[in-house]
Amino acid sequence: MTATDFGQRFAFADRALPRLLERQAAHHGKAAFVSFPDGPTWSFDAATGIAATYAGALAAVGVAAGDRVALIVSNRAEFLQAFFGCAWLGAVAVPINTASRGLQLRHILENCGARLLVIEAAFLPALDTIALRDVGVETVWLVGGKDEAPRLDLGCDLRAWPGGGDPRPAAAVKPGDTAAIIYTSGTTGPSKGVCCPHANLFWWGANTADLLSLQAGDRLYTTLPLFHVNALNTVYQALLTGSTVIVGRRFSVSGLWPALVESQATVTYLLGAMAPMLLSRPPTPLDRAHKVRIALGPGVPAQFHVPFQERFGFGLVEGYGSTETNFVIGAKPGEARPGTMGTVRPGFAARVVDADDTEVADGEAGELVLRADEPFAFSTGYYRMAEKTVEAWRNLWFHTGDRVVRDADGFFRFVDRLKDAIRRRGENISSFEVEQVLSAHPAVAAAAAYPVRSDLAEDEVMAAVVLKDGASLGAAELISFAAPNLPYYAVPRYLDFVEALPTTENGKVQKFKLSERGVTPTTFDREAAGIKVR
Hints:
27 strands; seven-stranded mixed β-sheet; alpha/beta; GMP Synthetase, Chain A, domain 3
């Protein structure tokens, strides 16, 4: 089905998750919906019972419609049990990157105002520097580590993960109600909570299913984290099409092919750096032993597409979307043009504009701005950040902060990012947050974080550091100081100690000069020094 077909088949009221679960349970019944390796497999009709019982468990600890529930959980069944339960109850799930630490994590918990935190036992050290009561958390559900709960003192009501509760009827949730708040890295400030309404996630599933030509019986294997919109989108693809989503633990270059073979996957999901990493491995018989016919692969550099398909036997679908928007630009196999992201999909509009929001000519680079035709197909804004919401949606277009070129035939090419952000291993990294942590060291006067390119066609994190007069500080010491307060992927690989940062007349750091200089013979390389942070 095309995205338009999904819009015609599913009435507006059916685009909220409780109604979607009920409708698809009636249609697909005992067919497999979600499967976790070494874990349970849920049928479509079982999913409604899971949602109802976990809604009951949430209500039993005082969670009500509109309340936020924070989730620090990896790719395991409890994540979706809590997510479905929140939706069924009318509460709002707040998936948090499991690598979040320090200032970033405190800001997220404080900003979202979650009364309940669901956290996997393995991630408890992330709370070492956070007083949960101070950020509003009243109750913690501990996933795994059941025996640890009685011995821990988190300053709030700590309980083991419940086995469900008394089933509740589905709340009267509307498609425009917020289903999730997903935090995306800040650029010139703290992380922003993107308010994703139920209809937004519906359209993510519909548009991606269209581009991948999904149908009932497909088996969708993802190792991407459920706390990001990509993997949540995969769950919706399965829900809308009657296919099965198999949730892998995490991406592994050596483990992907055995997992694809074992799961009998027909579709899989990759991000930019994953394709060259897979191609870097020696060929094996498993390269062609799978049943995969297509993969979603946004951000894979153009030069890797043909070698990837020739070696592994399936193509990569390119495209463009963001947490705030949807799968807006893309191209199906046979439509794609190398080096481009595709064309605007039905239901969306895109312009390329200058600094005054005036549309530029084809072939000229400018900022990509976007609109949606369908109600609530985009995010409704940033949670408790009204000024940032107005700024991003000014003149009734969402401003992506990405610089692109639209060719005369309607294909879009990505150029670079206008925003001060870094992207590594599929993660958006806030340079602001990296700088805040580095600058907290008593010997540091100023710091600037910026991207430099790696051999894997993505960014590495580099920072230039100015020390206070008379201060002495080693690079390894600064890394050790920063690592506990940053996600592992945000810890700088490279450090340069400099006398001063390049600035404009009004004092703004000119990071492009730092990026252009890049890695020099005097740069400290954490990986070359053998310092691991994960």
